[in-house]
Design a protein that fits this description.
The chain has about 290 residues and is of the alpha/beta class. Helix content is about 55%, strand content about 15%. This is 3-hydroxyisobutyrate dehydrogenase.
């Protein structure tokens, strides 16, 4: 039995892939209604993270923020209270390397194995099984998890011991936030000079500077339709804040990132925290 905790916009698709591949699944989510489509497809519902731990030998968590991960992990009804010695916990949440290492240590005290395995990719890749996993942890544990990761993703990058998977995810999302912001500024600047937006984007895509993620954001920026989010402002701001905190702890400056992070923070202040993070284009463009 495989456990899955966190049935949000990413977790629901990842868990759905496992169900479609024939795995027996027991799931938990704070809001049970979000899990109904998976229950209708055959997933078993658990009333707490502890119950998932009691019944599954491998558990995947995909949670929104560090606080949610701690809430699931600890406490009387928490995951660690239910997991059996020798079980494997795969955490795909985006948290800090420091927190991942602490979770790994807490799991080890209970005889539980732990992998930090956050992902690169949004809802489309999650639905198609095309995520990229950045993994920190023991190679033998990764070998056991590999068939599941292979169903949910297209690549697995083992970065080293616990904490290195989440470290790589922060590096990835730091660049992600900067890339979309830089593209948005360039497009908005072109428009301010009287250039046609469609033509600006076409020319940028023809050149060497356009990253693959920008093709996924083209329609949102063209149509200026940001309310249907693939990846929220709240999420990129959280990830960049985690990177900033980790950089501070390691004595490393992030001058570009901190500026871009502040702009996403201003989008939040405008009430757009639940919008797609490409809404930074609307924030930057000349009104």
């Amino acid at each position: 039995m495989i456990g899955f905790i966190g049935i949000g916009i990413m977790g629901s698709r990842m868990a759905g892939r496992l169900l479609d591949a024939g795995y027996d699944l027991i799931i938990y989510n704070r809001t049970q209604s979000k899990a109904k489509p998976l229950i209708d497809k055959g997933a078993q519902w658990a009333n707490s993270p502890q119950e998932v731990g009691e019944q599954a030998s491998i558990i995947v968590t995909m949670l929104a923020n560090p606080q949610a991960v701690d809430a699931v992990a600890y406490g009387g009804n928490g995951l660690l209270a239910g997991m059996k010695s020798g079980a494997l916990w795969i955490d795909s949440s985006t948290i800090s390397p420091t927190q991942s290492a602490k979770l790994a240590g807490a799991a080890k005290q209970e005889g539980i194995r732990f992998l930090d395995a956050p992902v690169a990719g949004s809802t489309g890749p999650a639905e198609k099984g095309e995520l990229i996993f950045f993994v920190g942890g023991d190679e033998a544990d990764l070998a056991e998890a590999w068939p599941l990761l292979d169903v949910m993703g297209k690549e697995v990058h083992h970065k080293g011991p616990n904490g290195t998977g989440t470290a790589m995810k922060l590096v990835n999302n730091l660049m992600l936030g900067q890339t979309v912001a830089a593209f948005s500024e360039a497009v908005a600047f072109g428009e301010s000079l009287g250039l046609d937006k469609t033509g600006v984007i076409k020319s940028l895509f023809a050149g060497p500077t356009a990253a693959p993620i920008l093709h996924f954001k083209e329609n949102k920026i063209m149509k200026e339709d940001f309310e249907n989010a693939d990846f929220k402002v709240n999420s990129i701001y959280k990830d960049m804040e985690l990177a900033s905190e980790e950089a501070y702890a390691h004595g490393f400056a992030l001058p570009l990132s901190n500026l871009v992070k502040a702009m996403y923070g201003l989008c939040q202040q405008q009430g757009k925290g639940d919008y797609d993070f490409a809404t930074i284009y609307d924030f930057l463009k000349k009104k």
